[in-house]
Amino acid sequence: MAIRAVLFDIDGTLVDSNDLHVIAWQEAFASIGERFERSVIHDQIGKGTDMLVPTLLPDADQATQDALGEAHGSNFKERFLAQVKPFPGAHDLLARVHADGKKVVLASSASAEELEHYTGLLDARDLVDATTSADDVENTKPAPDIFATALKKIAPLTAEEVIVVGDTPYDVEAAGKCGIATIALRSGGFPDSALREAGAVALYDDVAALLRDYQDSPLAE
Questions:
Q1: What is the pTM of this model?
Q2: Residue 99 belongs to a domain with what CATH number?
Q3: Are 105 and 153 in contact (CB under 8 A)?
Q4: pLDDT in 10s for each residue of the chain, 221 residues
Q5: Among 47, 79, 106, 147, which is most exposed with the fewest C-beta within 10 angstroms?
Q6: Edge-to-edge strands of the sheet including 181-185?
Q7: Cα dihedral 210/214/216/217 (nearest 10)
Q8: Do 168 and 180 share a structural domain?
Q9: Based on the domain organization, do 102 and 119 belong to the same domain?
Q10: Structural domain harbouring 38
Q11: For residues 12 and 205, is the Cβ–Cβ distance under 8 A?
């Protein structure tokens, strides 16, 4: 069945932000006396607060989870958001998908405010058909909610008619729970083994590499 829509993750996929999120989370945890190596936090990037905090602090109560999420969010917005840059080729890939007659959907565990900022940063307002953020769902990746919600927004398209482009195993897992295949990018810093084990159908270094191979990639199916 032909691909008629592409669901794009944002952080680590379209914009170079994963390492900045790691620092913001590290500082948020430090504010309550908890310290984790950056590599440990990086392994959880791609999840929202609801999934990331319980993984690292299983005994944290809801108030602590909420406080950490607020600390990370405000810290990231105030100190790091302005530093985030699109990956080379990000806008051009969105434009190519759009020109190819496919729907462009941004489906991220980021907040709605961050998603709006990134849409402008990518100069993609005229290219995007739908968006889904952490504010739209009960649970973030690797739960299926974000991609399931995105599918509802582009109904009547089915899971077989869409594909995800993401950078973390959690993107791949969340999409798989909805029956959606995922192209994984190495730009988020996750090893090939983790992306393949999660079920990625193809691997590319970054959006620029995917764009160069567009016609022979799963996007053109």
A1: 0.95
A2: 3.40.50.1000
A3: yes
A4: 799 999 999 999 999 999 999 999 999 999 999 999 999 999 999 999 999 999 999 999 999 999 999 999 999 999 999 999 999 999 999 999 999 999 999 999 888 899 999 999 999 999 999 999 988 999 999 999 999 999 999 999 999 999 999 999 999 999 999 999 999 999 999 999 999 999 999 999 999 999 999 999 999 98
A5: 79
A6: 130-132, 103-107, 5-8, 162-166, 181-185, 202-204
A7: 50
A8: yes
A9: yes
A10: 18-83
A11: no
Nearest to 70 by CA among 115, 31, 19: 31
158/144 Cα distance (integer angstroms): 15
What the block records as the tokens of 69 is: 């999420």
The helix/strand/coil state of 141 is coil
Cβ–Cβ < 8 Å for 186, 159: no
**Amino acid code (one letter) for 186:** R
Give the 3-state secondary structure of residue 59.
coil
Q: Whole-angstrom Cα distance, residue 83 to residue 136?
A: 26
